[in-house]
Amino acid sequence: MQTTTPLPETDRLADFAASLADTTDAMAMTYFRKPLDIEAKADDSPVTQADRAIEAEMRTHISKAFPTHGILGEEHEDARLDAERIWVIDPIDGTKSFLSGMPSFGTLIACLSGGVPDVGVISIPPTGERWTGQSGAPSRFNGVPCRTSGRQNLGEAILYTTSPDSFDAAGLAHFEALSKKVAMRRFGGDCYAYGLLASGHVDLLFEMNLHPYDYMALVPVIEGAGGVITDWDGQPLTLASEGKVIAAASAELHAQALAVLGHGKPQG
């Protein structure tokens, strides 16, 4: 009688996250470029029935598979945040892109252990592109290992941010200072840009006013591809971070960017 060896815990969680992304991708495409009811949340950001329906489905799947795990999401009430393992989910990252028919929105899925993200998924439903990361393993793009560009000099780097509208005056000043040092700056992308960084097409990302469901899934993907992602002080991103995020293709590039911001080398 043939027996099978159980998957290690992180592998099992990663497999579940990929399966969950399959479900959410299919749901998102049933709403994409269709008439939607749009509401403004308390922070004036838009939300639709698609965001809420997809997150509700995600929560149902997670609770059924892992009833003791916590869930933190954008659209529904958080649950069991004192649990050892917490899923951090964003059903549609880039709702403004989604609403305007741009195929750059994505679904973000992370699983944290003791507050540290060890599984992350960036899935882009319209294009069928997906980046996955987990602790101790190389990140993958559609199943194939991927790497950042490894670029080390600001003067050669491509810098992205989703929108300058997200910055306050100080943040905008930092972004302009970085922009003067790099080869090129571009706007847009939301989570898609972080996938492009993991695959070597983008070198530096700089954002503020993000929430844990915006950045937690990015951490295993960027780090597993050889990049660095921290807050603007060079500290690891946590559930309590302020939402100021900088990601770079290499430790050297990251350190140069922090220096422009007036900080020293990233904390190890």
Structure description:
- Keywords: Amino-acid biosynthesis, Histidine biosynthesis, Hydrolase, Magnesium, Metal-binding.
- It catalyses: a myo-inositol phosphate + H2O = myo-inositol + phosphate; L-histidinol phosphate + H2O = L-histidinol + phosphate.
- Belongs to the inositol monophosphatase superfamily.
- One of its GO terms (molecular function) is inositol monophosphate phosphatase activity.
- One of its GO terms (biological process) is L-histidine biosynthetic process.
- This protein is α+β, with helices and mostly antiparallel strands and 268 residues long.
- It has 2 domains: 129 residues, Fructose-1,6-Bisphosphatase, Chain A, domain 1 (2-Layer Sandwich), CATH 3.30.540.10; 108 residues, D-Maltodextrin-Binding Protein, domain 2.
- Helices cover 32% and strands 25% of the residues.
- It has 8 helices and 14 strands.
- The strands form 3 sheets. The protein has a 7-stranded mixed sheet with strand order 3-4-5-6-7-8-9, with helices on both faces. It has a 5-stranded mixed sheet with strand order 11-10-12-14-13, sandwiched between helices.
- A hairpin with a 2-residue loop joins β8 and β9.
- α5 packs parallel to α7.
- The longest helix has 23 residues.
- The termini are far apart.
- The mean pLDDT is 92.
